[in-house]
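sorry for the late reply, my laptop died twice this morning and i had to redo everyting from scratch. anyway the thing you sent over, i finally got around to it. pasting the sequence first so we're on the same page, its 245 residues, then the predicted structure underneath. double check i copied it right bc i was rushing
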Amino acid sequence: MKSPPLPRTRRRLTTEVLAGPTDADEEEPETGPLRRCILSRERLPKERMIRFVVGPDHSVVPDLGARLPGRGIWLSASRDVIEPARAKGTLVRAFARAARGPVSVPPDLPAVLEAALIRRISEYLGLARRAGQAMAGFEKAREWLRTGRVRLVLQASDGSEAERARFLSGAASAIPVLAPLPGAAMGRVFGRDYVVHVAIAPGKLADSLLIEATRLAGLQARPAAADRRGAAGIMDDERVPTGKA
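ok and here's the structure:
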């Protein structure tokens, strides 16, 4: 005996549900070290990505610490991934598909993320300074380099290339080097007008700074790598620490 046909409204609802995400990994739990980008569909280490959640007002909220409640929506921390989708108008559709409903996405999302990451990097750098895990200044930071006390080097994005190279001469090539902030911004953290060189000691704060600075470099229109070991160098799996968040 044939089942009676579904009412029209119910048929429409069923069709809409079936027209949603069909990949099984759309519903994969947020466990393990990898996440899938809603745009590129690549599975990448979560330290290279940014988590979003949908707020009560349907707005898409960046969750840089990956701690907010709700099902996470993950996006690669890469302007090459985000900007083309934003320009084509597919960014909002990708978020809506992942959220299974209408969402509101900031039209200037890359700029919003950059500003949030800059604030986060400044906060971590301030914590490292107060904990005695950050040293600013050419000679003092160079001494940390010589004695092997450095996990990460931050240099002013607007500093002299020759000066930055001179600071790094003879340093171990395995030490990541990034330039996420201009010298005035780093100077404010250390109570100075301008700082070009900062050495960061090993520890959780250094790992957090490395993750956030790498994300920022990926989102910047022109990633501010201090030298050849900058943004491209630390994107290797062996260089990026695995955080708990």
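DSSP finds eight helices and nine strands in the chain.
thats about all i looked at so far, will dig more tmrw
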